[in-house]
Design a protein that fits this description.
CATH architecture of the largest domain: 3-Layer(aba) Sandwich
Protein name: MFI2
Largest sheet: 7 strands, mixed
GO cellular component, one term: extracellular space
Keywords: Disulfide bond, Iron, Metal-binding, Repeat, Signal
Number of strands: 28
GO molecular function: metal ion binding
Number of helices: 22
Low-confidence stretches: 1-28, 331-352, 613-629, 782-800
CATH superfamily of the largest domain: Periplasmic binding protein-like II
InterPro entries: Transferrin (IPR016357), Transferrin-like_dom (IPR001156), Transferrin_Fe_BS (IPR018195)
CATH topology of the largest domain: D-Maltodextrin-Binding Protein, domain 2
Amino acid sequence: MNCQIFTTFLAVIICSHYAYTQNEDSPALVTEVKICVRSVIEAIKCETLSSELAKMQNPIQSTIRSVSCVEASDSYKCLKMINDGDADIVNLDAGTAYYASINYVSTLFLREKFPMSLQRESPIYSVVVLPKSSNINKLTMLKSKRLCSTGVDDAAGWTLPLSKLVELGILTNTDCNVKVKSAASFFSSMCAPGALTEYHNPFGDNPVSSCEQCGTTGRDWCTYRDMYAGSEGPLLCLKDRVADVGFMRSVDLEYLTTSHHGEAPAYDPNAYKLLCPDGTTTTVTGYDTCNWGEVKPNVLVTSAAKSPETRNEYITFFKELAKAFPPLPDGSSGPGTDSNDTVVAPTATPTTQTFTLFNSDPKYGLNSLFSSAAIDFQTLSSVEDGFNYAGGVEYQKKLDNLLTCPVDYMRFCVVSEYEMRKCENMLLALGVRNLKPVLDCILDNSTQNCMRKIEDGDADVIILDAGDIYEAGKYFDLVPFANENYGDTGNFYYSVAVSRKTESKLTLFNLMAHNSCHGSMRSATGWIYPVLSLIETGQITPGKCDAIKKVGELFRRSCVPGILDDQYNAAGTNPVNLCENCAAGGMDKCQRNTRELYYGDSGAFRCLVENALPPVYKFVYFYSIGVFADGGDIAYVRHMTPRDNTDGRNSDHWARNRRSDDYELLCKNGRRAPLNSWKSCYLAKVPARAVVTAGYKTASEKAIFWNLLNYAQQFYSADSHSYFTMFDSGVDQDDLLFSDSTVRLVEVEPDKQSYTAYLGVTFLKAVNTLNQFDCTSGQATVSASIVTFIFTFICHRLLI
């Protein structure tokens, strides 16, 4: 009995679900279509269409009975509304349809159809229009002229003519990822509708000159609602003498300069001429041989999530509309046609013949909702997308021309396998966005070797701590061009000393025989300011070049990653106990990179944390990872480090369940303070970590590198991307490439792009003071120079 009840219950559920899904996909439920409109005029025409449809005596042969009009500021907002389900349909230029296929799950189902010419449908071209009086007779004369475009990213009114100018070497790209800037640097001023919108101006730094010639004031200025935007805009610009050249479609130029319904043309065809790609000119009717490329007709786009039945209903509905409201005959257009161009009569009778779907001017303006010169719609393949429709690979090449980058690669030098892995993930993430120049990742075994690679031209950038920026600038002529910003402190951080609260008697004045944790050798927080603090408090009194020895005598055990590396230990006399507290095993122990578990500021704090483990647990824990270390009593870190690794902010096993109130800061006056008192209890203020490149790089090259990083953080600085985040190193690693506490990267001002100007007088004074006692600065360069000299001398002797 129970089995029968269960079977019956299951059958009811299955049948109900089947009925629901059948109703959901049934075309009979598609009774309304929401058309997205982008201007007041389009909204008025759309509402008129809705009204005329409601008044029809004989309903058209479609389940769709009504039209609703939803308004957006531009085509891109329409696409988002369609993606979100707030709209169904939008009519797009082929270039914007390409964008839709790349960025949205969209599909094309109908294209506009135009009258026949020479036994085939009249093709549409991109044309460049000049006033008849213009003296431009070669393409180079376009430089510094005023341009009016139909809109940024329009195939005919933007992409094709500008791409051709790049191909011909007339226009040079100045920005690898923002097409507007290159055009703005070529023309003196423009009306390029959309140039200042969010999509085309993500950082808000497109030049105002890109919109200077636009005519509408207020919020519609330089948008797709501007009086000089759209299909008629370029010709109106020329007529009003606010532009010297216009980019537009041939079909619109012909329509505007041709008589309709016995009325004079809207624009005198004898007042304009076409500029050809070879620099010659011809009449406005000569576009068959004087054009900048063929473009596809506008298309109707909907969401690819719509069922095939729904899309088919849309096709039926709009083709029926074309029959119900045919173009008014004026000798160039007539009743609707089927897909074979057979003339067909309307299947429904509208209450008025004054409304037409296509040639809507003068009441609604040119190309309102649909192209004025169109006569019907033609069905597209069910698998047609914007990429292939616009021209596929060939159109992609034209778009690539607009973003051709003067610099092919930005080679990022990294010093560990973990950094290499993150760099490669970043490479893939930027590739998805087609950002240029292409990121490349180069692995070396030390920061100094990366500096040398950049100096020699074998790498381009690396991100460095303030201490390394000093070395890179003084000995390798590297310069900073972008730096980390930490939000609350901006472009600097505080160097602090941290201890456990239980070590209540420990201060900066009684560190003898204790264990210490340092981020790395010669780093600002890990070495420079800690050693200066030891000198200032009188705990060490170093002589010339023996500061390292004195530090080794003061502390019982330490972890100073890199202290035994050749570049800091040329004589091989640095105390071994300064590495004994490091936790990595084998050759990784005490390395100046992330292979050492206690490397960096988070590593130094981990060194302090793990010293607090109970002896038995500590033995088991370190045995499980194959090493043993005592940990530390004091850690020298950045002020953000304790905060970022306590109170549940770090999920790594060593940081779990760590409480911030278990630790305190050690102040320069001998007192102790809570962790949040870093503004008054610190060792020094330190300039932020910065991205450096070779000093011989031009300002343009540095700007290109910065723009790539800026675009990268625009897309990947937040934690919303599961596959890559710029300022997050994942589990069990910290500060890979960029500091995890970075809020954003900022560009270094040109007058600060030297190591001395960037680091400032205070930091340079600190380093110079330390250099009197710690003679490791520049040691790597000197050692390399000696090796090079010996090698050259031997080779010379052998050749003799």
